[in-house]
Amino acid sequence: MISFTVGDFKKMKGMGEVLGREILKTAIKKALVIGLVGQLGTGKTTFVQGLARGLGIKQRIISPSFVIIRKYKFPRKSRFSYFYHIDCYRILTPKEMLELDFKKILEENSVIAIEWAEKIKKILPGHTLWMNFDYIDKNKRKVTIIYE
Ligand SMILES: Nc1ncnc2c1ncn2[C@@H]1O[C@H](COP(=O)(O)OP(=O)(O)OP(=O)(O)O)[C@@H](O)[C@H]1O
Ligand SMILES: [Mg+2]
């Protein structure tokens, strides 16, 4: 577990971007799931915007609150199939996610960032990278990374 303070939203995007670039350097052969946990407005979507940039995704990242799952293509030939941005805010049970064909998404070799992921923890892989977002003040957030 590692905890640090992120001073403003630009730094949050920057942190996501660094992680995205690092992910591209790894030799991961299965889905890489990042579970984002934190109250409203703590910076989960902001982080994902930076992450997508670091992964080389060219499209603009729009919050998936209403559609729940957004799917983006990697630009160049990449070992990853897709980048998924998922928001479980309106999901009540893991079963609802399974009804959206979530199992199939997990079987692909994709990068999957999930906001409010604690709601579907039961159906997430054991190797999920967990990130907690806490509000400190108007501009500061505490981010805790947990890899069990
Ligand atoms: N250090 C920071 N990191 C991230 N966002 C910050 C920070 N400081 C201020 N903010 C602001 O806080 C808000 C975070 O919104 P964001 O949509 O990223 O949150 P969220 O966790 O995805 O919320 P939700 O649960 O509603 O989806 C933005 O308006 C952003 O500009
Ligand atoms: Mg959000």
Produce a short descriptive summary.
This protein is α/β, with parallel strands linked by helices and 148 residues long. The chain is 28% helix and 28% strand. The chain is built from 4 helices and 7 strands; from the N terminus they run βαβαββααβββ.
Q: What is the CATH domain class?
A: Alpha Beta
Bound molecules: adenosine-5'-triphosphate, magnesium ion
Helix tally equals 4
Strands in their spatial order, largest beta sheet: 1-7-6-2-5-4-3
The CATH superfamily bears the name P-loop containing nucleotide triphosphate hydrolases
Helix residue percentage: 25-40%
In what range is the share of β-strand residues?
25-35%
CATH topology: Rossmann fold
The number of E-state strands comes to 7
Whole-number tally of structural domains: 1
- The whole-angstrom Rg is 14 Å
Molecular structure report:
By secondary structure, this protein is α/β, with parallel strands linked by helices. A hairpin with an 8-residue loop joins β3 and β4. The protein has a seven-stranded mixed sheet, covered by helices on one side. The site of adenosine-5'-triphosphate has 19 residues, from α1 and α2.
Question: Could you give the topology of this structure?
Answer:
Blueprint: E1 2-6, H1 9-25, E2 32-38, H2 44-55, E3 69-73, E4 82-87, H3 94-99, H4 102-107, E5 111-115, E6 129-135, E7 141-146
Parallel strand pairs: 2-5, 2-6, 4-5
Antiparallel strand pairs: 1-7, 3-4, 6-7
Bound molecules: adenosine-5'-triphosphate and magnesium ion.
Magnesium ion is lined by residues 44-45, 63, 87, 115.
